Amino acid sequence: MELTVYQVPDWESEPGLRHGFLGRGGGNSRGAYAGLNVSFGVGDNPRAVKDNYCDMKRAMGMAGARMVTMRQRHGDTIIDVAEPCKDAGEGDAMVTGAPGVFLGVLTADCVPIVCWARTSQRRLAAVIHAGWRGTLAGLAMKTVRHIESRHGTRARDLRCALGPAIGPCCYEIGPDVSDPLLREWGDKAEPSLRREEGKTYLDLRRLNAALLAAAGVREERIASAGPCTRCNPTELYSYRRESRNGVRNTGRQASFIGWAGTP
Ligand SMILES: [Zn+2]
């Protein structure tokens, strides 16, 4: 079976840039993890996960390179990555200015965001893991500010894409989530909430796109790739879907970005 890959078509002409939002299609994992699970932390067979990384890297032009991941905590810690490593530490966003460093984010409903910029001085890549807690903390906005202050790259030079995540069709939330989001983000959050028959649904991608725009990323440079995770069981892992089905855990899909070259 072929791998499931979503990409931003406009980005494919950028020399040296590699990016992709992978789904669960293809892969070596079985059972509840069936497909291209890339998490070693969910109880899957580590041999299958290793093989999944190999298959993914071969298909995506990263053979022989490392995909740097972090221990995601639903927080707002941003990690600068200077060289390829296996584990960048605890955090929910990573930024690199080094070629040959591919940054990866693992999700199963949360929003994976990948960003890049190329100016005459430098090439930059970043990933963000945004669930509702990271969104409440404004992680997307903080990452853009970090890129400006620490890396000297302006927000208006950034291009960002938000990958497959649970959509407003499926993401029902309670006041424990909607109240703090509205308190924190007010007018920015309101258009991302859908109310129907006494229920409230959240469009996490839309809210994160609004936060990126508020941080100065040009709206025409913010893209979206891939469908709702929960609506697409063949293509994508969805933690909420599987937990409603009574399955204790499921796999995680990978999203990545980086620049080819020697670190
Ligand atoms: Zn859906």
Task: Write a concise keyword list for the protein shown above.
263 residues, alpha/beta, CNF1/YfiH-like putative cysteine hydrolases, six-stranded mixed beta sheet, 24% helix, binds zinc ion
Distinct compounds present: zinc ion
How much helix is in the residues?
Answer: 10-25%
Could you tell me the strand content as a percent range? Answer: 25-35%
Helix and strand composition category: alpha/beta
The sequence of SSEs as H and E is EEHEEEEEEEHHEEHEEHEHE
Number of helices: 6
Strands ordered across the widest β-sheet = 1-2-15-7-3-5
Task: Write a structural description.
The chain is of the alpha/beta class and 263 residues long. It has a single domain (5-259), classed as 4-Layer Sandwich (CNF1/YfiH-like putative cysteine hydrolases), CATH 3.60.140.10. The chain contains six helices and 15 strands. It has helices spanning 46-59, 132-136, 139-151, 175-189, 204-214, 239-244; strands at 5-6, 17-22, 67-71, 78-80, 87-90, 93-96, 102-107, 111-118, 123-130, 159-162, 172-173, 193-196, 199-202, 222-224, 253-259. The strands form three sheets. It has a six-stranded mixed beta sheet with strand order 1-2-15-7-3-5, with helices on one face. Strands 4-6-9-8-10-14 form a six-stranded mixed beta sheet. The longest helix is centred in the last third of the chain and has 15 residues, at 175-189. The chain is globular, with a radius of gyration of 17 Å. It starts with a strand and ends with a strand. The relative contact order is 0.20. Zinc ion (ZN) binds at residues 167, 169-170, 228, 230-231.
